[in-house]
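Entry:
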Amino acid sequence: MERLGPWPNTTADAETLVVATFDYPPFTFVSPDQPGVVTGYLKELLEILAEEVGVSLVYDTNNTVGDFGVQRPDGTYSGLVGRLVNKTAHIALAPLTYRRTRRDVIDYIGHVPVATQRFDFLVPGQKRASLTNVHSLLKPFDIGVWICLVVGMLLAAVLLRLTVSLARPRHPEEAGTFGVISSFLHVYACVVQQGWSSTPTRWSPWLVMMAARLMSYIVYVEYTATLVAVMTVLQTRTEVGSVQEFVERSDWSLLMQRGVAYSSDWKRGVHGHRTLLRALCATDPDPSLRKIAQRIKANEGMKLLTANTSYQMLDAKTVTSFDLKQAFFLLGSKACDLVTLPMRPVTSNAEMIQAGHGRYTPVFLTMQKGLKIRPKMDRVMRRMYETGMVHRFYRQWYWDATTMKCDSAGTLRALSIFDISGMFLVMPAGVALSVVLLVLEHLIMWCSNRADIRYSSDAWFYRHGTDHRLWT
């Protein structure tokens, strides 16, 4: 502020403003042993703002922790917003999101964002690598890739058979070698990088063979590389894969703060990171959010999130609605175990990217509506924002959360028997299928023999009886 120069102070006498706040690290810190003592990012910001404007501050920490303020059905407000509306406090020292309903009853100081937050649904996950079932062998490729690969193999087999049959002069041995089934087996041998006992001599089938080889080589390399990554790279997995799955589990709990404004959007099935205008105009309401809103209203499976209960974010069967960046501040490196849930189940990487996360929403300092000192506070706040002071204070208090880096999930490790047990299921499955086919072959031969015996019974049955070799 020294670089800003002297600020004109038109206040004759220093005014005393009542500041309502609660413990909400790192924005504000309130110790239970010293309820009147407040520290934190917003406190230092407000102290400079008050000094430049020429007012004194009195902190009132006798407020429900986490109750920012929502509008009740009767039109009144709870929490810090209610303190401002009821004129029992001048300033609310907490990060409040911009809402049209709030704008009509309180003022946002300078309309300057003091931070950004993104409230997602977080769930603890475990990092592991495993191929515990046969389906795991398909993970390196998306379902679309497998479909294209099978179609490509069938097309290559058909082209190989046609080119061998239609090539002139015709090679009798090649025509017998590359039949319909054997052509497909030859193409399959390409995919698994195996050689052929014989290759076509004509140019047209030879080019088909080379194209199949080139395609199979690319597929084989990509599959092998991705399979190694799937097997050896630790991946974070969760018990529920989406918010939709969470609401269907009655034994799970929701951990969230009291009085957050975005929870009112869930009644319309809209995620809270959207503005109110977008929420009202939303054409794709999510029924999962509506079910969560009903849970909140009925207080079913709800847990209260505060700085003292933040460790519950890591509890089993618990989903938390919170800002992941702030979770790093509260939990430190343990927050690396938290995973953001998509709204709906995703089956591919492309869907995961589209699911994405919530948008960052700016938060503001607010004050009682219509105070005479507001224009001066707005001017100082805007100047502090323009000179980068707000950002510097933010980085100072949030440095550990903004610079926190989780351990890379690319750490390689040795696989155990359990991890690759899915691979060992391939051989028993092949043996079982082989036995089934063997039984079917014998059944078909037995039926054929019975038909031959019935057909020629007049010629030999009465002469040879049941000792005929076909019965044997």
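DSSP finds 17 helices and 15 strands in the chain.
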